[in-house]
Amino acid sequence: MRTRPLKVALLGCGVVGSEVARIMTTQADDLAARIGAPVELAGVAVRRPGRVRDGIDPELVTTDATALVKRGDIDVVVEVIGGIEPARTLITTAFEHGASVVSANKALLAEDGPTLHRTAEEQGADLYYEAAVAGAIPLVRPLRESLAGDKVNRVLGIVNGTTNFILDRMDSSGAGYVEALDEATALGYAEADPTADVEGFDAAAKAAILAGIAFHTRVGLDQVHREGLTEVTAADIASARRMGCTVKLLAICERAVDGRSVTARVHPAMIPLTHPLASVREAYNAVFVEAEAAGQLMFYGPGAGGSPTASAVLGDLVAACRNKVRGARGPGESAYAQLPVSPMGGAVTRYHISLDVSDKPGVLAQVAMIFAEHGVSIDTVRQQGKSTPEGGAPPAGGGEASLVVVTHRATDAALSATVEALRKLDTVRGVASTMRVEGE
Amino acid sequence: MRTRPLKVALLGCGVVGSEVARIMTTQADDLAARIGAPVELAGVAVRRPGRVRDGIDPELVTTDATALVKRGDIDVVVEVIGGIEPARTLITTAFEHGASVVSANKALLAEDGPTLHRTAEEQGADLYYEAAVAGAIPLVRPLRESLAGDKVNRVLGIVNGTTNFILDRMDSSGAGYVEALDEATALGYAEADPTADVEGFDAAAKAAILAGIAFHTRVGLDQVHREGLTEVTAADIASARRMGCTVKLLAICERAVDGRSVTARVHPAMIPLTHPLASVREAYNAVFVEAEAAGQLMFYGPGAGGSPTASAVLGDLVAACRNKVRGARGPGESAYAQLPVSPMGGAVTRYHISLDVSDKPGVLAQVAMIFAEHGVSIDTVRQQGKSTPEGGAPPAGGGEASLVVVTHRATDAALSATVEALRKLDTVRGVASTMRVEGE
């Protein structure tokens, strides 16, 4: 074993950073044995220097992150600040000064991954980011390496713990969205401003990263279709139950059937209770991968939290350090396939549509005609009178009824055009909800 | 990209080998892009040269595997022959002639992994074996690399598809073991001689490999406690159901609570229906990993079959080839911890014990005394008369009753000593079954 220690700079010392520092200290011997060299914390950049940090030598703490990454003797920089700037500049500077980088920064990787990868490549450095997607769950490495000889066709993931907690609560207690969000906030699963989670921004960043790796294609954040879960109602969850489904906020990355394009999207969807993702409860994450030779794989675990995220960071840190010791490099970006990324209209899915309609004869025929005109085939229809007592005659002016239609698979463009046309029908008083159905 | 192709020798061309060859041909461009160099099949060693092999140039086929691995121009040898010899000698010879090796050979890795690793190390070559454990499921790489900065405390896996299929059938249909085995054989899930699967040899080899990686400790095949599932009865499965459990053949690798030793074992066990492993159906595999920082992770997928195993082999092939191109090496054996491997008696578990007892007063007190004498605490007891009509008086000589005891956690030594002592009680006519309870 080499005796000169590898030097690690830690950028950020919040929930994740402090756990990384703690494990680096308490597990130092194990890490040294696994790396083949001792590893030491050489500096910790923070914003608020005054705060006491258990187990971290105050001498190591600095507010000058730039000076730290420019020191020149740093082997690996661990970036757990989050956000675009100053993280991007610091990482770039770190590469330019000979360091490899381990990052947990999904926003930055999704926004500017290719540039960071290129800089790492030019400098002969490593860029690892397992912690950026699904916390502790090994996912980036299995996709980049274990499945490197296979052809991934589909990635279907629950990659945001906050929204899974909210949907799980709505499903198990019948609570509405606001009530479930309040509970998530009270329990610390949702932040004071939950926008990034509930509007799907967090999941979209992860979808962009996963699609990029899975399809060897750069997928920009703006190419990921994104819908949050704020409009999911207790009625939607109840409807899902009636068809043997539950509602999950899914990140879906798919190769088109002809293999010539890919799509990436985040939205709530109904999935059958028999699907392995349906039983992912509380704030857990899970990612389902369909590959041509491997078949269906699932990876499950805690998607967030200080310790789980630190586990992923440290796995990457060991890899980056091993490479430093051996003068080797890990796999870089693989974007050779450069498949076009189709907009949402090109995605193939199924819709569950709830319509409020006039309760009079001929409505179903009219509705069915609209589907047929758009080339969308209907799987099931459930018709339910609201104002008409069972067996009674409809009121003179026609009462209200609801019609629940589940389609077969069609492009999202055809499905949404169908919904638009339905809205224009005189007999359709409103489209109560539409939700996609996945995982079949 | 370098233009000189990497040369691959394939040892074995059965179900897995032919699929590896097929994918190497059909996905050649993708593999080249991911490796950074073209890769070509340079030779295929088989036992029966006469058989036609679709898509494989007959010129490449040879029966002289030794000459093939000695050629000197082979970059990577893929060994999918299985068994100890000639696989071991061929792999060693391959290393000595400059090749890296990808193997799917669980028996050999479990029996002689350390020697192979040492030879690879001496020759500066790579040894990869993702396919040796749980087929397509990325498990070896996540344990070796993704969790390299964490402390794994427990691995609990369904790693044999044949036995999971049998137990799943017994559970869903109430079939007995023989009937379920017959169905597995008819459907091709069990081999004509099912011994390796049903007696747990296959799972034990995987447990040895997993324990070795998880605990950075060499675990010999003879250190893995092994019980098959041939004695599991329909009554056991029914008992499991009554306590909200199902029966699975589990490979369990555990670090002792004091952290100073490890155990590895394979046996049938009851697990709660709420445990993620309980819903692993048919011939699927899944491995549950508990790590200190990461928490609970699960990896799920097809554990066998030509295509899934080929997927794992090809992932390793890409890794080995990338290393060849870059002049780098993957992680070698990590056995620095050298923790002692405790025998089964040291494992901590719970027992579900069914006793046939005399149906007379005082039996439960006698039985409870035996548990107390062995320091084993009882969780629940269910007492059921067999010959006594409900509320009726027992026959003069005392009829038969059954007593089902579920214990709290204790060492397997204490639990099995308790069972031995129970057998000696006059009032205990027989121990109908004992089964461990795990996953809580």
From TrEMBL, chains A, B:
<dbReference type="GO" id="GO:0009086">
    <property type="term" value="P:methionine biosynthetic process"/>
</dbReference>
<dbReference type="Pfam" id="PF03447">
    <property type="entry name" value="NAD_binding_3"/>
</dbReference>
<feature type="binding site">
    <location>
        <begin position="11"/>
        <end position="18"/>
    </location>
    <ligand>
        <name>NADP(+)</name>
    </ligand>
</feature>
<dbReference type="InterPro" id="IPR016204">
    <property type="entry name" value="HDH"/>
</dbReference>
<keyword id="KW-0486">Methionine biosynthesis</keyword>
<feature type="binding site">
    <location>
        <position position="106"/>
    </location>
    <ligand>
        <name>NADPH</name>
    </ligand>
</feature>
<protein>
    <recommendedName>
        <fullName>Homoserine dehydrogenase</fullName>
        <ecNumber>1.1.1.3</ecNumber>
    </recommendedName>
</protein>
<feature type="domain" description="ACT">
    <location>
        <begin position="352"/>
        <end position="436"/>
    </location>
</feature>
<dbReference type="InterPro" id="IPR036291">
    <property type="entry name" value="NAD(P)-bd_dom_sf"/>
</dbReference>
<feature type="region of interest" description="Disordered">
    <location>
        <begin position="381"/>
        <end position="400"/>
    </location>
</feature>
<keyword id="KW-0479">Metal-binding</keyword>
<dbReference type="GO" id="GO:0009088">
    <property type="term" value="P:threonine biosynthetic process"/>
</dbReference>
<feature type="binding site">
    <location>
        <position position="191"/>
    </location>
    <ligand>
        <name>L-homoserine</name>
    </ligand>
</feature>
<keyword id="KW-0560">Oxidoreductase</keyword>
<comment type="similarity">
    <text>Belongs to the homoserine dehydrogenase family.</text>
</comment>
<dbReference type="InterPro" id="IPR005106">
    <property type="entry name" value="Asp/hSer_DH_NAD-bd"/>
</dbReference>
<dbReference type="InterPro" id="IPR001342">
    <property type="entry name" value="HDH_cat"/>
</dbReference>
<feature type="active site" description="Proton donor">
    <location>
        <position position="206"/>
    </location>
</feature>
<dbReference type="GO" id="GO:0050661">
    <property type="term" value="F:NADP binding"/>
</dbReference>
<keyword id="KW-0520">NAD</keyword>
<comment type="pathway">
    <text>Amino-acid biosynthesis; L-threonine biosynthesis; L-threonine from L-aspartate: step 3/5.</text>
</comment>
<keyword id="KW-0915">Sodium</keyword>
<comment type="pathway">
    <text>Amino-acid biosynthesis; L-methionine biosynthesis via de novo pathway; L-homoserine from L-aspartate: step 3/3.</text>
</comment>
<keyword id="KW-0521">NADP</keyword>
<dbReference type="GO" id="GO:0046872">
    <property type="term" value="F:metal ion binding"/>
</dbReference>
<dbReference type="InterPro" id="IPR002912">
    <property type="entry name" value="ACT_dom"/>
</dbReference>
<dbReference type="GO" id="GO:0004412">
    <property type="term" value="F:homoserine dehydrogenase activity"/>
</dbReference>
<keyword id="KW-0791">Threonine biosynthesis</keyword>
<dbReference type="InterPro" id="IPR045865">
    <property type="entry name" value="ACT-like_dom_sf"/>
</dbReference>
<dbReference type="Pfam" id="PF00742">
    <property type="entry name" value="Homoserine_dh"/>
</dbReference>
<dbReference type="Pfam" id="PF01842">
    <property type="entry name" value="ACT"/>
</dbReference>
<dbReference type="InterPro" id="IPR019811">
    <property type="entry name" value="HDH_CS"/>
</dbReference>
<comment type="function">
    <text>Catalyzes the conversion of L-aspartate-beta-semialdehyde (L-Asa) to L-homoserine (L-Hse), the third step in the biosynthesis of threonine and methionine from aspartate.</text>
</comment>
<keyword id="KW-0028">Amino-acid biosynthesis</keyword>
